[in-house]
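Support case: user asked for a sample of complex input and structure output to validate their parser. Sending the pair below.
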Amino acid sequence: MIDGTLAPSHPRTPHEINDDLLRPVLRTTWRFYALVAFLGAIVSAGIGSWLYQVYRGFGITGINWPVYWAFYVTNFVFWIGISHAGTLISAILRLVNATWRPWLFFWLIPYPNQRLIWPNFRSPLVWDFFAITTYLTGSTLFLLLPTIPDFALVRDRTTGWRRRIYGALSLGWRGTPKQWHRLESAMQIMAIAIIPVAVSVHTIVSFDFSMAPVPMWHSTIFGPYFVAGAIFSGIAALIIAMAVLRRFLHLEAYLHPVHFSNLGKLLLMMSLLWAYFIFSERLTTWFGNEPSEMEVFWATQRGGYSPLYWTMIVCNLVVPFVILSLRRLRTISGCLIASLTVLVGMWLERFLIIVPSLSHKQLAYSWGSYRPRPVEIVITTATFAAMGLLYVLFSKAVPIISVWELKVGARARTAPHPAPAGVAAPDASAELWKARP
Amino acid sequence: MPPRWGMAVDLDRCTGCEACVTACRAENNIPTVGDTQAARGRAMHWIRVERYFEGEFPDVRVKFRPVLCQQCDAAPCEPVCPTYASHHTDEGLNAQVYNRCIGTRYCANACPYSVRFFNFFQPRWDKPLHLQLNPDVSVREVGVMEKCTFCVQRIKAAEVQAKAEKRALKDGEPTPACAQACPAQALVFGDLNDPESEVSRLSRSPRGTRLLEDVGTRPKITYLQRQSPA
């Protein structure tokens, strides 16, 4: 276990922790408004494009016969993956009690999907609906529980309507030993419960494809393959979010190179796992030599989709492998570059799962192709901007790094008999957790 | 026993004239989408004539194959639909309920024959074509999937007529527009549960094959393969 919660050279007092981490919530600069305006403009363009599409019809997109799913389903799988991974990583880190965990799960909001009116329980889309609503509920609880003490902290430092809102959110938190004990139990239960939920949800997303008799969709490997891809892209997004926060919220004292280096190692492991999955998938397809599957195989391997395919391989395997396996390159910038390429690669991966298969189904007569139209590009860009916007707004509403957990970490470091972080009830030195008067 | 509607397609008889395609379009109010949209892959044709070329020039032989919804007994499009818009009737028809369809397009992805078509825009008919719409067939709106119904309106009309006359349906009484229009009589429609029907007789032919049978969809259309030499 690597203890990098606080570097020894930067002993932060609880007051300093309060100041540093609550600053984004309590003080607003022009840069915040500029960023919100910028991201908001892109999101508005996306919403406008979407409304226009609702008005005119799906015809303004590039989807066609036979490629009926393309960019939007790619985005759906991509963002579901990212959302799952963040919570999953956080839950695993909480369970293994890693003291270098970054407590950054707030940026995850599952992509809502509410299109079902009369459900057919045989349809994987219906499974999807229930899986996603379960996951949305579970991850919201998982996110809200550990923020209760921090909401109380903000409540004690604000006045007026904000005090009332944070008061309601903090659910009457007073910081008694009994409350701490209950919170710890609840968090432990949620951390255990959210893992099977997250695994099953992304498996079910993969079932959207693997249940259909479409060449190279109908595969037993898709469940774990999608879960691994989700964690892979989630770690990458986490590293990017951490790097951005560290830079713009000046959290250098809390997010250290060791955090990035450790997450980088995790990313490297997931990159290799992802490579193992795609190798297994490709080898069995090639060896099986089934004609309709081989058409999809060669279309991606050396046909029209091969530039995208090999870009994906470079982004998901070559670049992360080179950067992250060399200690000298596994710096914050190195991890950031690797993460950016992984996000590109994983988006391409989702696209390459969906489109080449649909454009090369069993009957050669029905082969087609797909090219995105402007509306799809705008909406796709807007989903990324919306993710950024939600994250920025979240960092304004909620302390983005769990304040009390950092203090537990700091105490665990300095106490003569360190209690495990995240488990110790801080009753012994209650003044540490009190808000500054 | 309820009927089990099926079709036999004699590929030796098909000349590729596409009369079936035209008849189907007129019967079922299938919109035309214009050349721009057709070039983008939005053309709709519940039945199409696929052309396959065999051999090298000048020794070329063209093979026609009319492809419509295969009305599968184990249709991949049915279980994937979240709203039961695509469902199986007790007469074995693979029905599409337009009012239930919410446009996930999942059915069209799952269909190995690619015989499902999506209304990418609100359909329009240039005047005076709007006057020739068939009143027995509903017009589909934007965002809805549609496909061959085996001319269910004709089947229902024939059944109602037979019931009114207190008699059983005769073989060949309900006929879809494509089969009716086929000058070579390559398309034969009827009840597969009646062993004496023409379609049952043809389906038992040793020439009979089913399209993409290995996918396991159990289609109700039998293609009689060509036996004339090249």
